[in-house]
């Protein structure tokens, strides 16, 4: 007979099944166990991860959007946001799961874009001048309007074509090892959106299975000693990072220098985001590149194009062993937060989780983050407030209602932050139709939300 712990582990493992019904049924069962008290969950805490990749792009642990919602509930994470590369496939599934478990959920998309104004300058894609990792956030559904869907399909197709071309080059270099992109790589994804990390995983696993002496093979192919290969193989995650660097990144056999036509433009991504009622969002790396040394100029350009928030991954900017590097990057972190506040850009933080070893949530209690913690939470309430206002009543940040009531970005930001503080993560079916309507003023909206919260 299956023990309770075995049942729990089976249900949690099933949250990552590619079959959506299996995921949903497993989440329902886990919620029932939690509500009955049979399965303890952590008390809700004022912490947030608003940038977490799921298996619809690449998650280092294989987590689905459903699993991420459950992990937030189980660990008391108040805000959780899914962000996937080149697609919106997980948006509906994630937000529905968050509604089920009572977690404040948000959703976005990330892709590499071309910024003509910085064409000759490296920004946040190391070694790639003019290329900008960029985001849209605050999406409320997986379906885009037809015009936006055309651009979204183009983004996915470009990414897929880049991967296939890269795999051909790598196959030639790694012969006799051969990877079939269709048969070996795509089955690792639930919706055909493979990434470089999927490709690296297959290369590593297939070499281990089919090459008689993998150590000698990799020593010869990568140009490093057998002892170095053996040492790195002790940490599979580290070894796969080395493979990705040696096979796919700048200067490697699979690398192709991006051109103007390699990626969509920033304006293309903004067009998708705005058409969906979501928020264009800058993505900041660590402040060390030539482009990010000109962050005020960069943000001014992006704001003029519609950027309404900024995303930061704090852990890689303070949780650093080398004291000199830590001092430099922590200073950059504080500086970008100060600049974002001056520009009235809400700050959205997360851990990505697209690499094994990355945290479920940032260490909000770390002394290094104590001076800026309040800004992270303000950003979380803001984004959640927009998401729920848009999803429940079509009164989000980009809505006609918002355009009619707000002139200043700061006032608008403050409203959605206040709304996020009042809107509960669970609503009874049908209540969204009677609580708010677009004839109300912002002050009246907040009063109605406050009244509802008190009655709930």
Q: What fraction of residues sit in β-strands?
A: 5-15%
Order of helices and strands: HHEHEHEEHHHHHHHEHEHHEHHHHH
| Helicity level | 40-55%
Q: What's the main sheet like?
A: 7 strands, mixed
Derived from helix and strand composition plus strand pairing, the structural class reads: alpha/beta
Q: Compute the average pLDDT.
A: 94
CATH homologous superfamily of the largest domain - what is it? Answer: Metal-dependent hydrolases
Low-confidence stretches: none
Shape descriptor: globular
Characterise this structure:
- A seven-stranded mixed β-sheet has the order 1-2-3-4-5-6-7.
- The longest helix is centred in the middle third of the chain and has 29 residues, at 146-174.
- The model has no long low-confidence stretch (mean pLDDT 94).
- The chain is globular and about 70 Å long.
- It is α/β, with parallel strands linked by helices and 456 residues long.
- It folds into three domains: 1-38, no CATH class; 41-144 and 276-392, TIM Barrel; 155-247, no CATH class.
- The protein contains 19 helices and seven strands.
Tags for this entry?
single chain, 456 residues, alpha/beta, 7 strands
Summarize the structure.
The chain has 456 residues and is of the alpha/beta class. The protein has helices at 4-14, 20-36, 65-75, 91-101, 146-174, 181-185, 196-210, 214-222, 226-233, 236-247, 266-275, 295-304, 315-318, 323-342, 373-393, 400-405, 409-422, 432-435, 442-455, and strands spanning 45-52, 77-85, 104-114, 131-137, 279-283, 309-312, 347-349.
